[in-house]
Design brief:
Chain A: It is a multi-pass membrane protein. Chain A: Keywords: Cell membrane, Membrane, Protein transport, Translocation, Transmembrane, Transmembrane helix, Transport. The complex is a heterodimer of chains A (about 425) and B (about 775). With about 425 residues, chain A is mainly alpha-helical. Chain A is built from 18 helices and 4 strands. Chain A has helices spanning about 1-10, 10-35, 40-50, 55-65, 80-95, 95-105, 105-135, 155-180, 185-195, 200-205, 210-230, 270-290, 295-305, 310-330, 335-345, 355-385, 390, 405-434; strands at about 235-240, 240, 260, 345-350. In chain A, strands 1-3 form a two-stranded antiparallel ribbon. Chain A has a two-stranded antiparallel sheet with strand order 2-4. Helix content of chain B is about 50%, strand content about 15%. With about 775 residues, chain B is an alpha/beta fold. Chain B has an 8-stranded parallel β-sheet with strand order 1-16-2-15-6-3-5-4, with helices on both faces. The longest helix of chain B has about 50 residues, at about 585-630. Classes of the chains: A mainly alpha (about 425), B alpha/beta (about 775). The interface between A and B is large, with 63 and 72 residues.
């Protein structure tokens, strides 16, 4: 793989693309650390150190690469854009006009992209207003007394909202030009950057526990990443033949025509679902009553469910992930539909009749392969909870060697490398031709 | 000043809408200068004109015109055209010529003299020492344009040739040797394909590609670019075919096999599979090794159930001939791919004509990609400007019409049913005809044209029909289509490239009479799958500032709507008037939507074909380069000598070295061609299943590349291994090598054809269907 990178850098066209992407990433990071106007950098720093991150901001902060809690000009990160794309995607099912556009190919798609951009800006205005409101009331850092925005005049606040909204617009543009002129999917690369940017901070955090622990953690981390890479690439390849063409004398089949089923067919979604769901009781208990005289169930929730080091929490998390993995695979992969489609287009699995037998076979294989897949997801997700003594309470999402962070990072990394590889293969041909 | 402002405004327009084509403003200055030189060029004798043009040829090999030379060229070209044809090119025409000499594609409205512009541009390139292929739409136009423009070329000292389907190899070689060659895309493609089978340098026909000027560029580069040109070779007959045909013929619909809703796919039921297995002697159809039998059964089933005689094809002179649905012509050059043609022939109990395998194939797109410079012109290219930029790196410039177009384009008239639509069309024709206006009716297919002609006859409206059955009279019919009171019912044949003059052959005085009635009235009986075809049809009226009008009659039962926007027909609130016409705006927008979906689907198919073909084309180029080297050098014999020196020495004792060189070359070429054929088959197979990779969140295209590249890497080494084996064992005598004796048979016959639309349903179809079904599922 390193060889691939070396030859990628040796190909001028590809090198330009990679350097361009890196340049954009640098710009993005710069913006993520640049404080927005009117924000007291010193106070934010003090407060951020004191904060005990919990709950809802955790995921947002993860996606924005920590920019949210720095109140930087890129505080909102890529989140509004992601949300907007998801909303527009969903709307194509609901609104006939959107559905029409989606079907109209490139032209319609361009219009939908334009709508996504508008919606992103709208969401950004909403979110930045929310964040600024929270910050002025001191709710962004509940345990911190220093005002993060010393001058709270209307004009100042408007400037702050406008800056953050504009920042989101810039991020959106950065993401799009990466996709267009750089390498990989811009949105994914920016998320990747946000997560990876936390590694040094986490590293120094761990360093304070002593060099021995640090070395051990690093080794464990590497082992985890390696195993995630390994499992993510794991596939069950079901051979498929399409008997609709009369091809030459040689019969092919076996190696190249197959239906791949991933070990981790569900990706990172079950983990996100599970952690959101697990957060719900905590939210309900906080909203339900005063914290001074907690009732019985509130106390249970607080000691067992909210506490990330508690065994109840860990077991519930694990069980939920397994459940959601099956649930999600069940939704996204429909063996009946697959078998039906194969039958219609002349495909079959050698030795198995098309139609029902094929569908049952697929169900069987899928059920088998989802079990290790879900256990793997569960283990990776709860791993950070084992290291809470070292990383500190509430940090499980941020721990770079497990959980959502590592799944996303490895996923994006693998995709990007594959894309570089594919382009490289083509470029080499062109080089050969010259 | 005004020009500068224009340019500024156009520039601003392009900033707002990047896909809008640029204007010809940059070329105005040079043409204006050429205008000043006109008096002096007029004084030249014909000989002086020719020698002046020849003087411009005196240049280094790859040096293009300087600014002065371009001006000079314009002046000479104008004078030559004026003298040879009696037509003095307008300024916009010369501007278009200059744009094309700069490698742009030019949009020119109908009747603006595209043919002359193409000829002057071609002659311009030729004068710069380039070799030009003028790619025309069909053989008829290639011949016509070459003859028509011949005098202009002669005056400019440029030699010209043309090629048709029936040209002999010698005629072809001669035509290609000329400075400018008029040839259809199919013919040049077939020539390129045939060339790659020759084993002697002297047999090659097509010279190295240089400049291509493409007429009707959107049609060639967009609409037909994805159609593969195929070179096939015969293989031995297989007698199981008869058995399978008999077995499939005995199956019962519903019980043994089912077809899907759209009638595009057919598949065996369990009972059907049992029956076939029993009839074929208890084999297991779905075992890994019987894929070939199953494929034959599937193809035969397809031929029996989905293709209908006299609808999809006709049987004539003991041959199956396809009917091209979109043009209504008999497509003599087209075949169904992948054994389907043979299956249909077996079904009709005819001699199997094309049992063969694909030796090589290339798309028109790849063919055009070979040329170093590509330019072109068309009336409707602006709509695909973005696409030409994306796929071919071409920029489009729009020429303003010489005289502004005053044609009236009425909004669509939408009816609820086809029946009401037809009635309304007849009524409208009767009304318009009463005033003496010539009418051109564009129908979507052959059957419709005849149906409408019958209705018109009933209504006692005399009409002329132009369709595939009357193609011999095409020119005569078109010539009279603009005459006073003429009614012409046509298929798409009259849509593109035909020039309908008001007054017909009667000429000038009748022209004014017709113009007074309102000029040519164009009626479309339905929207086409792309708005460009609609515009082409409209463009028949209003040439060179003539009066004219166009209107489309559509219905909610039109194929376009039923195929691409069926869900809309149900929801549209129909509020028809008594005559069935729907006047609310919704149905019209539904039609627009259906057309955009159709365009989107076509574009997706095109983009997909392009993406998947790019790599194959690169591999082809590598292979052909290697083949060319084997063909022209001693690579084969030196390679074999290095691998098996003993055998080489032993042979050298018996035969002359030249014979050995030739034998070695034949061996290597044979294995090279064989491997490439296998490779293509492998890729076709791979392509069929590659979409499954999306299930593992992999990118199908990336995976396709991965597999294709891995396979190709072994191709050349394997060729050499196989060649060594043959070299060691084959009988080589003074008379050369006995390839057949070694079991290596070159195809006894080869033929070329175009592949008809993929009858098995494309990937885009599948995707579209998936979206539609997902949507319906949610609604239900």
């Amino acid at each position: 793989m390193l060889g691939a990178f070396r030859s990628a850098l040796a190909t001028p066209d590809l090198r330009r693309k990679i350097l361009f992407t890196l340049g954009i990433v640098v710009v993005y990071r710069l913006g993520a650390t640049l404080p927005a106007p009117g924000v007291s950098f010193a106070n934010v720093k003090k407060c951020a150190a004191a904060v005990d991150q919990q709950g809802i901001y955790q995921l947002i902060n993860l996606f924005s690469g920590g920019a949210l809690l720095q109140l930087s000009i890129f505080a909102l990160g890529i989140m509004p854009y992601i949300t907007a794309s998801i909303i527009i995607q969903l709307l194509t099912v609901v609104i006939p006009r959107f559905e029409q556009l989606k079907k109209e190919g490139q032209g319609g798609q361009n219009k939908l992209t334009q709508y996504t951009r508008y919606l992103t800006i709208a969401l950004a205005i909403l979110q930045s207003t929310g964040v600024v409101a929270l910050a002025t009331r001191g709710q962004l850092f509940p345990n911190c007394q220093d005002p993060v925005i010393p001058e709270q005049g209307t004009f100042n606040l408007i400037v702050l909202v406008v800056t953050m909204t504009a920042g989101t617009g810039v991020i959106m543009w950065l993401g799009e030009i990466i996709t267009e002129k750089g390498i990989g999917n811009g949105m994914s690369i920016l998320i990747f950057t946000g997560i990876a940017a936390r590694i040094p901070a986490e590293g120094s955090n761990i360093w304070t526990k002593g060099p021995l622990t640090f070395t051990a953690i690093c080794l464990v981390g590497l082992a985890i990443i390696a195993s995630v890479v390994f499992v993510e690439q794991g596939q069950r390849r079901i051979p498929v033949q399409y008997a609709k063409r009369m091809i030459g004398r040689r019969m092919y089949g076996g190696t190249s025509t197959y239906l791949p089923l991933k070990v981790n067919q569900a990706g990172v979604i079950p983990v996100i679902f599970a952690s959101s769901l697990l957060y719900l009781p905590d939210l309900v208990s906080r909203l339900a009553g005063s914290s001074t005289t907690p009732s019985g169930w509130q106390r249970f929730v607080q000691t067992y469910l909210s506490q990330q080091s508690s065994w109840v929490h860990i077991l519930a998390y694990f069980a939920l992930i397994i459940f959601f993995t099956y649930f999600y695979v069940g939704i996204t992969f429909n063996p009946d539909e697959r078998a039906d489609e194969m039958k219609k287009f002349g495909g079959f699995i050698p030795g198995i009749r098309p139609g029902r037998p094929t569908s049952e076979y697929l169900k069987f294989v899928l059920g088998r392969i989802t079990l290790p897949g879900s256990i793997y997801l569960g283990i990776i997700a709860i791993l950070p909870n084992m290291f809470l003594d070292i990383t500190g309470q509430g940090q499980n999402q941020n721990f770079p060697f497990g959980g959502t962070a590592v799944l996303i990072m490895v996923g994006v990394g693998l995709d990007t490398v594959k894309q570089i590889e594919s382009q490289l293969m083509q470029r080499n041909y062109e080089g050969f031709l010259r | 000043m005004g020009a500068r402002l224009d340019r500024l405004l156009a520039g601003l327009g392009r900033v707002v809408d990047a896909t809008r084509p640029g204007t010809l403003a940059p070329f105005r200055g040079q043409v204006a200068q050429a205008g000043k030189a006109e008096p002096t060029t007029q004084e030249l004798t014909d000989e002086e004109l020719t020698s002046a043009a020849l003087a411009l040829r005196d240049r280094a090999a790859d040096e293009s015109f300087t600014e002065q030379e371009r001006v000079r060229w314009c002046a000479l070209g104008r004078e030559a055209a004026h003298r040879a044809l009696g037509e003095r090119p307008f300024d916009v025409q010369l501007q278009s010529v200059l744009a094309m000499l700069s490698g742009h594609v030019v949009q020119m409205a109908t009747g603006e003299g595209k043919t002359l512009v193409g000829a002057l541009a071609a002659a311009g390139y030729a004068t710069q020492g380039r070799q030009v292929h003028l790619i025309s739409v069909n053989d008829y136009l290639a011949g016509r344009d070459a003859e028509w423009m011949g005098p202009v070329y002669r005056l400019l000292g440029v030699s010209v040739g043309w090629i048709g389907q029936h040209s002999t190899p010698e005629q072809r070689r001669e035509a290609y040797a000329a400075d400018v060659t008029y040839v259809s895309a199919n013919e040049v493609g077939f020539d390129v394909l045939r060339d790659r089978l020759h084993t002697r340098v002297a047999d090659l026909i097509v010279p190295a590609p240089d400049v291509a000027i493409v007429d009707e560029v959107d049609s060639v580069l967009v609409d037909e670019a994805k159609v593969p040109l195929v070179l096939a070779g015969s293989v031995a007959e297989d007698d199981t075919d008869q058995v399978i045909t008999a077995v499939v013929g005995s199956l019962v619909a519903g019980e043994h096999y089912e077809t899907d809703d759209e009638g595009r796919n057919v598949y065996l039921t369990d009972a059907g599979a049992d029956a076939v297995e029993l009839a074929l002697g208890g084999i297991d159809l779905y075992a890994a090794e019987s894929g070939g039998v199953l494929a034959q059964v599937n193809i035969s089933l397809h031929a029996h159930t989905l293709l209908h005689r006299d609808v999809d094809y006709i049987v004539r002179d003991g041959k199956v001939q396809l009917i091209n649905a979109s043009r209504g012509r008999i497509a003599t050059l087209q075949r169904w791919p992948d054994g389907l043609q043979a299956a249909v022939e077996l079904k009709e109990a005819l001699a199997v004509s094309t049992r063969g395998e694909v030796l090589d194939s290339m798309t028109v797109q790849a063919l055009i990609g070979r040329y170093t410079t590509v330019s072109g012109m068309s009336g409707t290219v602006a709509a695909v400007a973005e696409l030409l930029q994306e796929f071919y790196g071409l920029t489009v410039k729009a020429a303003e019409p010489n005289i502004p177009c005053v044609r009236v384009d009425e909004p669509d008239r939408v009816y609820t049913t086809v029946e009401q639509k037809d009635a309304a069309i007849v009524e409208y024709i009767a009304e318009t005809h009463a005033a003496g206006r010539p009418i051109l009716i564009g129908t979507l297919d052959l059957a419709e044209s005849e149906r409408l002609a019958a209705r018109l006859a009933e209504a006692e409206l005399p009409c002329v029909v132009l369709n595939a059955r009357h193609d011999a009279r095409e020119a005569a019919i078109v010539a009279e289509a603009g005459a006073y009171g003429a009614i012409t019912v046509s298929t798409q044949m009259a849509g593109r490239g035909t020039d309908i003059r008001l007054g017909g052959t009667e000429g000038a005085q009748d022209r004014d009479r017709v113009a007074e009635t309102g000029g040519l009235c164009v009626i479309g009986t339905g929207r086409h799958t792309t708005s460009r075809l609609d515009d082409q049809l409209r463009g028949r009226a209003g040439r060179q500032g003539d009066p004219g009008s166009s209107v489309f009659f559509t219905s909610l039962e039109d194929d376009l709507v039923l195929r691409y926007a069926p869900e809309l027909v149900a929801v549209v609130d129909r509020d028809p008037d008594e005559d069935g016409r729907v006047r609310s705006r919704k149905p019209a927008s539904a039609l627009g939507h259906a057309q955009r979906v159709a365009e989107g689907v076509n574009l997706d198919i095109h983009r997909n074909t392009w993406r998947y073909n790019q790599l194959v084309e690169q591999q082809r180029t590598i292979l052909l380069r290697h083949r060319d080297e084997v063909l022209r050098t001693d690579l084969a014999v030196t390679g074999l000598r290095d691998r098996c020196p003993e055998r080489y020495e032993a042979l050298l004792a018996d035969v002359e070295p030249e014979v050995l060189v030739e034998a070695a070359r034949l061996i290597v070429l044979h294995h090279l061609d064989r491997r490439w054929t296998d490779h293509l088959a492998y890729l076709a197979d791979l392509r069929e299943s590659i979409h499954l990779h999306a299930l593992a969140r992999e990118h199908p295209l990336t995976e396709f590349h991965r597999a294709a590249i891995a396979e190709f890497k072994d191709l050349l080494p394997e060729t050499m291994d196989a060649s060594v084996e043959t070299f060691e064992t084959a009988r080589i005598t003074e008379d050369g090598i006995d390839l057949a004796g070694s079991g290596l048979r070159r195809p006894t016959a080869t033929w070329t054809y175009l592949v008809n639309d993929n009858p098995f349903g494309s990937e885009a179809d599948r995707t579209l269907k998936r979206i539609v079904s997902a949507f319906r599922g949610k609604r239900a």
